[in-house]
Amino acid sequence: MPPSKTYQVNEIFHSIQGEGFLAGRPTTFIRLQGCRVECEWCDTKYTWLKGGERMTLPQIMNRIRHRHVVVTGGEPTMYNLDLLLLALHQRQHITQLETSGQQWLKGRVQPHWITLSPKENLGYQILPEYQRYADEVKWVVDEALPYSTVKDAWNEWPENNQVKFILMPEGCPPRPEMVKKVLEWLRAQRFWDEARWFFGDRLQYRIGVE
């Protein structure tokens, strides 16, 4: 698939990164349109269907405000992101990709940071490429997600990849029973594992920003 010269953009907005290991960074978000996963609890269901605005690379770049840039969706790996990532890297932006992991990147250029969020609809599948290159795995902890799934993924991860596991209780704000579940899982980790297992909050909801 050739690199995309235009992208169907749902929105570009400026806020902070509210989730994961990089939470708190001033961030420009590029939210691309389109997703085939369709998770029941998704908070961006408006990205599933047709919509958004077809934007050229210069139009997108003119909207970038912060050094840290998150490419998200929808599902951004539906696009070949090479030209977009190259343009951002040439301007010294730090790029972060947020993906469900339904497929690997269509191009050759990799973002600086990959956030993988396995989904129930995909059987919590983790492709081998993400085991090599993902920087963090963001698990939404709800009734459907068993501890064994997360633990098995951890045990299968290559030892030379210092990946972070982020456990995010479902709900905005998070439901108390899911908070309790996450805390129990964190307490169950071995001493040398717990340094890379984290409670994942949603800072954007705490402070009332997009």
Shape: globular
Question: How many strands in all?
Answer: 9
Using only CA atoms, what is the Rg?
A: 17 Å
* Low-confidence segments: none
Number of helices: 6
Strand content: 15-25%
Based on the structure given, which CATH architecture is correct? Alpha-Beta Barrel
Series of secondary-structure elements, N-terminal to C-terminal = EEEHEHEEHEHEHEH
Percent of residues in helices: 10-25%
Q: Quick one: biggest sheet?
A: 9 strands, mixed
Structure in words:
The chain has 6 helices and 9 strands. The protein has 210 residues and is α/β, with parallel strands linked by helices. The chain has a single domain, classed as TIM Barrel, CATH 3.20.20.70. It has a 9-stranded mixed beta sheet. The radius of gyration is 17 Å and the shape is globular.
Fold blueprint:
Layout: E1 6-16, E2 26-32, E3 53-56, H1 57-61, E4 68-72, H2 82-90, E5 94-99, E6 113-116, H3 128-133, E7 136-141, H4 147-156, E8 164-169, H5 176-187, E9 197-199, H6 203-207
Parallel strand pairs: 2-4, 4-5, 5-6, 6-7, 7-8, 8-9
Antiparallel strand pairs: 1-2, 1-3
Entry keywords:
210 residues, alpha/beta, 9-stranded mixed β-sheet, 6 helices, 22% helix
Write a short abstract of this structure.
This protein is α/β, with parallel strands linked by helices. It is 22% helix and 25% strand.
